[in-house]
Amino acid sequence: MSRRGGARLGGYAVLAAVGLVAALALRRPELAIVAAPFALLLVLGTGLAREPRVHASLTLETTRSLEGDDVAAELRVESPARVDRLELALDLPEGIEAADGGDVRAMRLEPGRERVVPLTLRGARWGAYDVGGIELRVTDLLRLVVWEQRLRTALVLKAYPRPETVGRVLAALDTQAFVGSEVARTSGDGIEYADLRDFVPGDRVRSINWRASARRQALVVNERHPERNTDVVLFVDTFVDVGLGGRSTLDDAVRAAATLAARYLERRDRVGLVGYGGILRWLRPGMGVGQRYRLIETLLETGVEPTFTWRDVNLVPARILPPKALVVALTPLVDPRFVAALEDLRARRFDLLVVELDAAGLVTHGPGRVGRLAYRLWLLEREVLRARLERLGVGVARWGDGSSLGEALEGVRTYRRYAGRARA
Amino acid sequence: MGGLGALPLVRGSDTVREVGTRVAVAALAALVVGLLRGWPSLVTAALLLVGGIYAGQLVADDVPLDVAAPAFAAGTLVAAELAYWSIDERTRAMGERGDGLRRLGWVAGLGVATLVAAAVLLAVADAVRARGLGVDVAGAASAALALLAAVLLALRRGPSSA
C-alpha cells in the first residue's frame, strides 16, 4: 500500500509550526498552548500509524446479464488488524454503474472479522466490462495518514444487448438443404401441400391421393413443400456511429443483430455475422444455442474503429457469405464505403435486406439558413440513396425512434415478395 | 470559528476590533470557500488568520497570562477537526449507520482532552513565569529532546514503499 499524508497532516504541521514560532517571537506562551495540541496530534498520529493489511475481493452472482438488468455482487473485506476507516471504491468502467449509487463505501473493520458488502451493478449499455478493479483507502484514527492500494482481479461482466420486439422475421428467398422451419419453394417431403402428379414406382403409398386417383382412374400422389432452413448473414456497419442523447446507431445495430440472430436461430436457420468497418470481424454461419452465444460474444466486441481505408467485400471469405444466403445489413447508411459494399453484394445476386438505423433524428441542422439548407440536402441525398437501393431490388426497412424493429421489417415484407418475383 | 474570532474582538481595544474585524471577515471567507471547494489549505489559512487575531489582541493589549487560552486552543482544534471532517465528507462514500455520531463523539472528546491538557500547560506556564530562568532552561531542554526524538523517529521509519 502506498502511504501519504492526509489533508490534516499538512494543515496541523503549519498551525503547530506557526503557533510555536509566534509564541517565541512574541513571547506569548498562550500561542504555544494553542499550537501544542496540533503538535501533539502530529507526533501521536505519525508515530502510532501502522500499515494496514486489507484483503478485498469482489464476486458476482452471474457474469452474464441483459443490459439494464441488475446483477448482485458481494464485496468481501477482511483485515487482521483494526481499521478505523476504510473506503472501498469500485473502479467501474463506463457503461457499468452501481444501481444503488453505492460504488464507494466507507466502513470500519474489526480484526479478523470479514465484512460482506452487498452491491448491485447494472450494465447500462451492452458490452463486456472488466469490473475487477477495487481501490482501497485506509485512514488512521486521527485521519493524518492515508494508505492507498489498487487491486485488480480478472472479473468480466457481460451485458448482453436488450432484445427488440420482432413478431416475424423476413424469410430468405432461397432455402438450403437442411431441415428447418421455412417452407421451400421446391417439392419434396414436407407438410405443406404443393401439387398433384402421377404415381411413379417408388412413391410411398401414404402419399397417394385416393380421392383424386378415383376421379382420374389413375394413381396420383400429393406433392408437398419440404421445410428447410436458410442461411442468414448479419452484415453490421461499423464504419460510423451516429449518436445523440444516449441513443446511437451502433447500439441499435447490435441490439437488432442480437434479436434477429436469436429469432433466426429459433427457426433452425444458420446465422453468421460480418462486422464490416475499420476492423473486419466475422463469424461463420452456424446453428444452435452455441452459435447464439458465439454471435452475441462477437457482437459485444463490436466498436467503431476509424479508418480511411476503402474496404472491399472480397476481403470477406466465401464461406462466411454462402450462396443463397439472406444478407441482412444493419446500417445508418451514412458511410459510402458500406453503401458500395451493399451494391457489390447485390451485384453478386445475394438476397439483400437493409435495416436502416435512422440517423436523421440523431443529427441536428447547423446554425442559420445555410445549416438548415445543408440538412435538407442531406435528407434528400438519403432519399436518393434509398431509392437507388430499391431500384436494385433491395428492401430498405427504416427503423428509428418510436417504432419497433418488427414494424420496420413488416414495412418491407410486401416489397420483398414482389421484388423477389421480379428478380426470379 | 465565529466564536474563536469573536473572543479577541470582544475583549480587545478599538484598534484590535477594527483590524480584527477585517481579518475575521477574510478568515470567514477563506473558510467558506475552502469548505465549498474542498480546499484544505484555505481551512488552514482561515485558522491561521483567526490565530493571528488572537495573537494580535494579546500583543496589542499586553494582557497578562490569558486564562482563556485553553478554551481558545480547544476551540481551534475542534473547529479544525470539524472543517477537515466536512472536507472528508465531500467524497461520495456511503458510510455506515452511526458513523457521524461516533465521529462527533471523537471530536468532542478531543476538544475536552485539549481543554484539560491546555489548562495543565497554562498552569505550567504560569509556574515557569513565577520561578524564573531555571525552569526556562528545563523547558528548552525538554523541547529540544522532544524535537530530537521526533526527528529520530521519522528517520527510523523512513519513506514507505508503494
How big a fraction of the residues of chain A is strand? 25-35%
List the total number of helices of chain B. Answer: 6
| Rg of chain A, alpha carbons | 33 Å
Low-pLDDT parts of chain A are none
Rg calculated over all Cα atoms of chain B: 19 Å
Mean pLDDT of chain B: 84
Biggest interchain interface, per-side counts = A-B, 41 and 48 residues
In total, the number of strands of chain B is: 0
| Terminal CA distance of chain B | 38 Å
- Quaternary assembly: heterodimer
Could you provide a short overview of the structure?
The complex is a heterodimer of chains A (424) and B (162). In chain A, 31% of the residues lie in helices and 32% in strands.
Describe this structure in words.
- The complex is a heterodimer of chains A (424) and B (162).
- Chain A is built from eight helices and 24 strands.
- A six-stranded mixed beta sheet of chain A has the order 21-20-17-22-23-24, with helices on both faces. A five-stranded antiparallel beta sheet of chain A has the order 1-11-10-5-7. A four-stranded antiparallel beta sheet of chain A has the order 2-4-8-6, with no helix packed on it.
- The mean pLDDT of chain A is 87.
- Chain B is mainly α and 162 residues long.
- Chain B has six helices and no strands.
- In chain B, helix 2 runs parallel beside helix 4.
- The chains are: A alpha+beta (424), B mainly alpha (162).
- At the A-B interface, helix 1, helix 2 and strand 7 of A face helix 3, helix 4, helix 5 and helix 6 of B.
